[in-house]
Specification:
The protein is mostly helical. Helices cover 75% and strands 7% of the residues. It contains six helices and three strands. Strands 1-2-3 form a three-stranded antiparallel sheet. Helix 3 runs antiparallel to helix 6 (104-154).
């Protein structure tokens, strides 16, 4: 099970992942756009690993919670059935409260694991959200490559020789791309 400190460390790592898209991918060139794709892929690999940890943690906490609930329920029903002081309480609610007072450790463990289960679920959702965000960013970068291809097709830019782009006649920009 992930500890609070481990989750905090992973949150910080997730929050440190930031990617910015270039406003005009034609000015940066395909090599830099491809570099972004590689960077996104590396981040997705790491976030995917953290997502696996989050899923496993959530499953483990749920299993422990179910075991603790079962243990608590068995002891609670035994006390409700056998303890004369508990059985003499006026209402079912009072009997349950009196029985739980006799097994505070089990009762507290269930409540702590319920809190842990909520935290594990929230962590899983946060990691899942970050992964989806990276997927969206990857799609956006892929669309940038498509934009460059379209600009080449319609003649807005043309490739003169490896590493250089020039605006088509009548356009006022000249674009040099390193490593394309």
């Amino acid at each position: 099970m992930l500890t609070v400190d481990q989750r905090r460390s992973l949150y910080e790592e997730l929050n440190s992942i930031h990617l910015e898209l270039d406003g005009d991918p034609a000015t940066t060139g395909l090599s830099l756009v491809n570099g972004k794709i590689a960077e996104i892929h590396a981040h997705k690999e790491r976030v995917g690993h953290i997502l696996s940890q989050a899923i496993e943690n959530e499953r483990e906490v749920a299993r422990e919670l179910n075991e603790a609930r079962l243990e608590h329920e068995i002891k609670l029903h035994k006390i409700l059935a056998t303890d004369e002081n508990v059985r003499s309480q006026k209402s079912e609610n009072m009997r349950t409260v009196a029985a739980n007072a006799l097994i505070p450790g089990e009762y507290l463990r269930v409540r702590q694991l319920e809190i842990e289960a909520n935290d594990a679920e929230a962590f899983h959702k946060i990691v899942q959200s970050k992964y989806a965000h990276l997927e969206g960013t990857n799609s956006s970068v892929s669309r940038q490559i498509t934009v460059i291809q379209l600009q080449l097709e319609i003649g807005e830019i043309e490739r003169r020789f490896p590493g250089q782009w020039d605006a088509s006649p009548g356009k006022a920009r000249s674009i040099t791309v390193k490593g394309a």
